[in-house]
Amino acid sequence: MASSITENLELQLSEMELLFSMFPNKGEIDLEDASALLYVQRYLEGVREALPPQVSFSVNLTVEEPKADVCLHVSLPHEYPFAKPEIFVRSQALDRQQQKQLNDDLVSHISSLYNGELCISIAVQWLQDSIVPYIEKSKVTSENAPKPKETKITFHRMWIYSHHIYRQELRKKILDYAKRLHLTGFSLTGKPGVICVEGKKENCEEFWRDIRYPNWKHISCKHTETIEAVENVVEHRLFEAFEELTFEAHGDYGLRNDYHMDLGQFVEFLKEHNCEHVFQILFGLDAKSAKNVDLSLTS
Q1: What are phi and psi for residue 137, nearest 5 degrees?
Q2: How far is CA 225 from the centre of its chain?
Q3: What pLDDT, in 10s, does the model give residues 73-104?
Q4: What is the C-alpha to C-alpha distance for residues 95 and 290, in angstroms, rounded to an integer?
Q5: Ramachandran angles phi, psi of 110, nearest 5°
Q6: 252 — phi, psi (to 5°)?
Q7: Which of 106, 81, 108, 84 is nearest to 94 (CA)?
Q8: Ramachandran angles phi, psi of 23, nearest 5°
Q9: Secondary element (H or E) of residue 272
Q10: Pairing state of beta strands 55-63 and 68-76?
Q11: Any alpha helices (H) in 115-239, and if so which ranges?
Q12: pTM over 0.85
């Protein structure tokens, strides 16, 4: 029997209540949008007519032996549980091969369940019961691998443009990911949003891959800069740390938070860090005209 969106969302709320009871401590469950469940509740109560956004979140687990932190990323389509969720596991304790194998096995396990069965708590339990062998195999592979010859580092810088960056959860995610990957640069909040990250190439690429997961669509990498075979990334950095920028804003501070950053101040910031040329790459405008630009052009 076909289910309705309302029935599906009611089931999703009930499963989220179960998950929060299983993981009551702060940081164990991170909602990508802190208001997501409230939007669902208002939709079910008839207060909100528009279909709420999909519920996306992560469950952060700790394996005691061998010690490891594991993150289960989940995104629930409106048709869930009658459609399979987007689900993916990440952990620094897993090498690439074991992480792929673990995710393949998890998806296979979820696919074996009955259609319409709530499966996130089942996935969490399966992960807790099954992950240790994957970690141990990763450890053995790492220990047996020949020690790599000393190689030069590839320095990389990425200039990322977004239609806007408003939500506190997203802003925190950007800062946390940059810190974890030892990247420097900045995140310009508001409208438009701009992110610059610099450091080892593989770390920049991991940041770019992870920051878009699962459904950040209005974002693009406008420009990259690469320097091959460097001995130390520090001497090539334009920024000493990773910081969040919030310049004087113009516009409506109403429900839409539809306000624009002062691009003139942004140009001055770029000048201070010897990268003024990037302004034209990001916006298609000469930096000299930044103070006079119609910011609606970036909408």
Answers
A1: -65, -40
A2: 22
A3: 999 999 999 999 999 999 989 998 999 999 99
A4: 46
A5: -65, -40
A6: -85, 125
A7: 106
A8: -130, 75
A9: helix 263-272
A10: antiparallel
A11: 120-144, 168-180, 201-211
A12: no
